[in-house]
Amino acid sequence: MNVYSWEMRHNMKSTMIWTVVLIVLLIMYASVYPSMVKDVELISRVMKLMPRAFLRIFGLEDFDLTNILHYLVTISSIYVTLLGSVFSALLVVKLVAKEESEKTAEFLLSKPLGRKSVLAQKLLAIFSSILMLDAILSLASFFVTSYFGSESLDQSRFWLFWASQILLHITVSSIVLCFICFSKRQDSAVSLSIGIVFVLYVFSIIAKLTEKAKLLVYFTPFYYSDGVRIVKYGSIEPIFLLLHFILILASLSVSFIVYSRKDIYV
Amino acid sequence: MALIETHDLTKYYGRHRAVENVNFEVNEGETFGFIGPNGAGKTTTIRILLGLIFPTSGQAKIFGKDCVRDGPQIRKLVGYVPSEVNYYANATVEELLGYFASFYKSVDKTYMKELCARFEIDTKKKFRELSTGNKKKVAVVQALLHRPKLLICDEPTIGLDPIMQNKLLELLEELKAQGVTIFFSSHILNEVQRLCDRFVMIKEGKIIKIESIEALRNKNYKMVRLQLKDRNQLKRVVEKFGPNVKTKDSAIVFEFFGNIDQLMKELSSLSLENVWIEDPSLEDFFMTFYSEVRS
Questions:
Q1: pLDDT tens profile A85-138
Q2: Domain that holds residue B251
């Protein structure tokens, strides 16, 4: 487990920075909430004037903004869902792709450790960091919600939302890992990984926007873990849960196979 | 016993050939030179041995085990000094050494410290702050700290100042005396002559020749350049030193094989304006060898 502990030690700082920045964002958003509740009538009037498509993108169509959980989830679709996924993707770049682009793989892979073991330890470090970020963030979010919210919080829905986000981040990192294992050179790994995240995110928006693109919902984990829908119904549909696990399993098995047979050019 | 053996080792990068049908054996306890010009396939061969890349066809074995299948087992007993050293830039040397050691079951920490002291490594510094030469020194310690049975060096003296180069060569000589097998890739003929028992030459991905270093010593020829006072003496020079005498600008150039005394005697009978007697550069040496093999 030496690679795991090395990676954890050397990535703690960046994970903590991300966590702090996301908590600050959360507090910023949440602190606006009390004033919004005051002007709820005005806001719902403004919302009625907005185009339906716009409301649908943010899941605001039939949303009760006086409920802080609804409010939290709506804004979370940007900072937890999207930024959290960017964090997960960049983590994979940092731990796996950088090893090749900065040529340190020459050292790491000439040590008496199999490729699979190296990748497994790195993956464990990636998942641990994601869990750490999400755990701290969800706790912070819990306290902030209790502090700013006027009515009691629906705890089961709240934690279900966070579980869906953790699952999303794990799925995103697995998919990115798969692409990185396939690419021969890692010079553009950062843009590749962020590109993947945004394309998948846009897929989920298109899927929500029009009935015609309904099939698209199955092709993006962002839709599986759409917080607004999950909080509205209080559950994740089994099919989407299953798809999450299939995507994770498939991406990881392909990654392990490709990585252990890959030529490392440094 | 052959410690390293390759059988028709071939590697293509797409269509581009890196090495083709490479066959050689390195015996236990031997110091084996691997020489050739840039892009000849030296590093490719080393990377296959280390399991960083996989051969297109053919096989490489170390300790009788297959480099593709048994990589982790083989690498327990192998140390590797890369030609270009890249470690985690933000870590201190101390942290890095700890990490290097963590890959092996038991590492003698006093031996590690001894090596650091010997190469005057400042372990408190961050890796990125080190000069090329100091980075190389860290790589040497890294390769030796687990007392490997086989040491693979890819141009290890590049980037070191002459004093450190000498220290490193001394260390390699010590290791050799301890029975460590050394696979040594180099550009520099001197080093190879000093250290190696046998050597192999590689050019354009193909092995040209495997020779003992004794044979190399016997081929210890000189590059001779003369300026004659009287151009008419040219004929006599050709008579004396054979047909490979060439004129270059105002000078006459030829390779002289054989007894130096003989050479001096012959030269003294000529009336000379100037004379240079030099050791061949690796390039000259290589060209002579190469044309010899072809003919």
A1: 999 999 999 999 999 999 999 999 999 999 999 999 999 999 999 999 999 999
A2: 220-279
Same domain, B124 and B193: yes
Q: For residue A150, what pLDDT is reported?
A: 67
Higher pLDDT, A29 or B293: A29
> Hey, is the C-beta of B73 within 8 angstroms of any chain A C-beta?
yes
Summary mean pLDDT of chain A: 90
- Asked whether residue B290 is domain-assigned, the answer is no
Compare all CA atoms of chain B with the CA of A3 and give the residue at the minimum distance.
Answer: B99
Same domain (yes/no): B135, B234:
no
Average pLDDT over residues A79-86: 93
DSSP string spanning B80-116? EE-SS----TTSBHHHHHHHHHTTSS---HHHHHHHH
| Model ipTM value | 0.86
pLDDT in tens, B226-258: 888 877 777 777 777 777 788 877 788 888 877
Q: How many domains does chain B have?
A: 2
Say whether pLDDT at B88 is over 80.
Answer: yes
Comparing alpha-carbon positions, the chain B residue that sits nearest to A101 is B86
CB contacts, 8 Å: B47 with chain A? 264
Mutate to test the interface with A, among B13, B88, B153 (most CBs of A within 10 A): B88
Contact A110, B50 (CB under 8 A): yes
Choose the final residue of a domain: B173, B196, B216: B216
Give the distance from residue B103's alpha carbon to the nearest chain A alpha carbon, in angstroms. Answer: 7
A109 touching B (Cβ < 8 Å):
yes
Supply the DSSP symbol for B180: -
Q: What is the pLDDT of residue B281?
A: 64
In sign, the C-alpha dihedral spanning A28, A34, A38, A42 is positive
| CB contacts, 8 Å: B73 with chain A | 112
Q: Quick one: closest CA in B to A111, which residue?
A: B75
**What is the Cα–Cα distance from B88 to A228, expressed in whole angstroms?**
42
CA B8 – CA B26 distance, rounded (Å): 15
Q: Taking CA A105 as the corner, what is the angle to CA A103 and CA A107, rounded to the nearest 5 degrees?
A: 100
pTM of the model: 0.87
A7 CB neighbours in chain B (<8 A) are none
